[in-house]
Write a structure and sequence with these properties.
By secondary structure, the protein is α+β, with helices and mostly antiparallel strands. The protein has five helices and five strands; from the N terminus they run H-E-H-H-E-H-E-E-H-E. The longest helix is centred in the middle third of the chain and has 25 residues.
Length: 179
């Protein structure tokens, strides 16, 4: 049984701004989100095992998610000087990823088979082996919520987590599926 109070404390101690329980039954995988990945605005489509098409079809992703019933959502929220403050956006993203890795390490002690789904592509390896060789660390690699076809705003709303904190803010959201 998941103790959400303990997980919230752990998440806040790790550095996240917000933590919320996640019901896996609320996770919808949308083809239109995957199509946004195919547009390759981030430049990672087809370049990593954690990104489409390397992370599998939506059906493959659904099969992985269906192994879980509950988890947690985590967020890192940054305050921007203005809407063009790219430096703080990148700093907030880096902080979120640092927190994500730290929390993942702590959670694996209790939930060794959890599924960590991040914000942005996996950066566990300096160079991904995709597509020439298998992933070196398939149990440690993670895909983004978008790579799985998740619309982050919908997942947050369905699980009572705020997504938009007002002008001049940015929120990075990830999740851990635990049981």
């Amino acid at each position: 049984m998941i103790n959400y109070e303990e997980l919230e404390k752990l998440g806040l101690d790790t550095g996240f701004s917000h933590i919320a329980p996640l019901k896996c039954s609320t996770i919808e995988l949308l083809p239109e989100v995957r199509q946004m990945c195919e547009a390759n605005t981030c430049g990672m489509y087809g370049k990593r095992w954690s990104c489409p098409p390397g992370c599998g079809t939506l059906e493959d992703c659904r099969a992985k998610i269906n192994q879980y019933q509950a988890g947690i959502l985590v967020q890192t929220v940054g305050e921007l000087e203005d809407s063009m403050d790219g430096e703080t956006m990148m700093e907030t993203e880096a902080l979120h990823k640092q927190n994500f890795y730290a929390m993942e390490k702590l959670l694996r002690e209790t939930y060794p088979d959890m599924l960590a789904i991040g914000a942005g592509c996996c950066t566990k390896c300096e160079t991904c082996t995709y597509p020439d060789e298998p992933c070196r660390f398939p149990k440690k690699a993670f895909s983004s919520m978008e790579a799985y076809g998740m619309l982050v705003t919908q997942i947050c709303k369905a699980n009572d987590m705020t997504y938009y904190y007002g002008p001049c803010t940015i929120a990075y959201t990830s999740c851990y599926l635990l049981e």
